[in-house]
Each structure stands twice: as C-alpha cells, then as structure tokens.
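Exercise 7b. Backbone tokens:
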C-alpha cells in the first residue's frame, strides 16, 4: 500500500459505478465484473479513497462510442439481447459476438458504464481537474472499430485517447496486460500523435496472435509502435530489467504530454489466463518507476483508466 500511496495524490480522480460489478458474462466465463466490486471494497477498507476524489461516472452515449466504433456495430450492441439474439444471427457473426464475447443481459449498459468512466477521466485530465484518473472497470483493449474481441466490446481506451488528443499533442499508451493491446495499436498504427508500447506474451498461438517486435507502425506512425514480446514464466527480476530501460528510452524520446496505462492483472503469476510469474510488487514497482521518471522532465498527467489503472487502465475483470 505504501507504493500505491506514493502514486496517489489529492489530485487523483477515482471513478466507480456501484452497479458495474452486477453484470455477468455467463456461467464459466473467465471475465468476472463482480471483481470490480471486490476491488472497490479493498479501496475502502485500506482507506485509499481518502487520498482521492471519488466520482460516480458518466454513462457513455451511443454518440460517444461512435467516436471510434462504426454506427452499425454500436447500434447492434444497443439492440441485441439474450431474448432476441436469434434474430441477429448474421450480425453476431459479422461483429464477432459469440463465445468469447457473449450476449448477456445489460450488455450495452455495461459498455456505457465502463466507457463513460474512462471518458470522464480523460475529460478531467484535459481540464486539469486531476493529475491521475483511475477506472478499474476500463481498459478493454481488444475491441476493434467494427467488432468485439477478447471479452471486449467497446474500446474505452481508444475513445479516451481520442478525447485526450483534443488537448495533448502526444499521448503515450503503455500496456502491461499479458495479452497484446492489439485494438489500441490498430487504432493508432498510422499516427505519431499516439505512441503504443505493449509488454505481452507472444508465440505458440497465444491470443490475440499479434504483437511481434517487427510491428512498428506505418506511414506517419512508423516507429511509434513498440512491442516487447515475452516468453512464458518471466519473473520479477527479468521483467524489471526489460521494463526500466525500455520505458526510460521511450519517455525520453517521445516526451508525452499524457500517459495512458493499461494495467492488466492477468500478467500476475497464477492467473488462470496467464503464464507469467510476476508478483504484485512488480506491478506496483512499474507504476512507481513510471511516475518517478515522468517527473524528471515534465510531470505529464497520467490517465489511469483500468482494466485501469486505465489512464491508469487495469484488467481486473478476468478471474485468477
């Protein structure tokens, strides 16, 4: 808790919707929104809320989601339900909604709540209401413009970064989820206004199968996409030896005016979807290192939008 306290200040905004943990992907599905409620309980019992401004977040509208996603896709998410999905057979296939990304009661409402929290965090950062914004429900980094992917329906990170770009000339996105941040990389692959850095498991057909070190961006975005593919079983010491020089060089070179962090919990050891051997102390160390190093040149605001520390973004939904 000392490490987390170091990061937080009285200008940290924490967004929590008391109903976001009530949604259910279905029996046996590894994505567990209920864990968001458990995480909030820890925030309360450890007294971390005393170090933050706490907000019940705004709900994102269809218009907000269409800042990145196609209108047809968002319209489908708004209309489909377990009761009528038989009438959407073609759309289910078109938009990749099925086993990994099931239709469940309140699907669009769930997307509206976690996306709204991330978007509100970005807005507060833009207007200098806070220096750090936290949304534990966010960080659904696999969603694409036209389809769902990897438990993710609406890419709140991309939508929030688009909001940040209204005020910030350079946004750095860092992803430490065990899965490659493919949706965010794809969205900004052709621009130098967003630099994406992802540390992830790669190889042996591990989902999503992207994130090779030779994926570096294209056109104006060439060399503004950095992937650090990792093998099974990486431990704390090895991870830190990689993370520190990479992030130092990236921050010194790019000099971002805002940083978005997707802090996926599935990179921790013993996670049922993961294969790394990292401890929570390394996740905390990563945050402290970035916060400290950022201060050495200009103290850029940090958007923790989770699966967030999402801008910080965290992925606490998946069960361990």
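Sequence design result:
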């Amino acid at each position: 808790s000392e490490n987390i306290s170091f990061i937080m200040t009285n200008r940290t905004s924490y967004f929590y919707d008391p109903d976001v943990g009530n949604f259910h992907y279905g029996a046996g599905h590894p994505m567990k929104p209920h864990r968001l409620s458990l995480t909030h309980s820890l925030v309360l019992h450890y007294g971390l809320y005393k170090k933050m401004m706490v907000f019940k977040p705004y709900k994102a509208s269809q218009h907000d989601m269409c800042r990145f996603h196609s209108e047809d896709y968002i319209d489908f998410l708004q209309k489909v339900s377990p009761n009528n999905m038989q009438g959407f057979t073609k759309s289910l296939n078109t938009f990749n909604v099925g086993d990994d990304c099931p239709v469940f009661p309140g699907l669009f409402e769930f997307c509206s709540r976690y996306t709204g929290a991330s978007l509100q965090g970005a807005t507060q950062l833009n207007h200098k209401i806070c220096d750090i914004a936290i949304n534990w429900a966010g960080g659904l980094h696999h969603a694409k413009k036209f389809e769902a992917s990897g438990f993710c329906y609406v890419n709140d990170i991309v939508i929030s970064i688009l909001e940040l770009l209204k005020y910030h000339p350079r946004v750095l996105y860092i992803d430490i989820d065990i899965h490659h941040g493919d949706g965010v990389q794809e969205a900004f692959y052709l621009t130098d206004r967003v630099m994406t850095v992802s540390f992830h498991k790669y190889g042996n057909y591990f989902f999503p199968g992207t994130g090779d070190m030779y994926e570096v961006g294209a056109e104006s975005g060439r060399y503004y996409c950095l992937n650090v593919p990792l093998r099974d079983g990486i431990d704390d010491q090895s991870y830190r030896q990689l993370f520190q020089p990479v992030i130092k060089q990236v921050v010194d070179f790019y000099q971002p005016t805002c940083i978005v962090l997707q802090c996926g919990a599935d990179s921790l050891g013993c996670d049922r979807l993961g294969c790394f051997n990292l401890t929570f102390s390394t996740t905390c160390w990563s945050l402290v290192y970035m916060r400290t190093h950022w201060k050495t040149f200009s103290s850029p605001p940090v958007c923790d939008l989770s699966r967030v520390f999402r801008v910080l973004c965290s992925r606490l939904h998946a069960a361990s």
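Instructor comment: The radius of gyration is 18 Å. The first strand starts at residue 12 and ends at 15.
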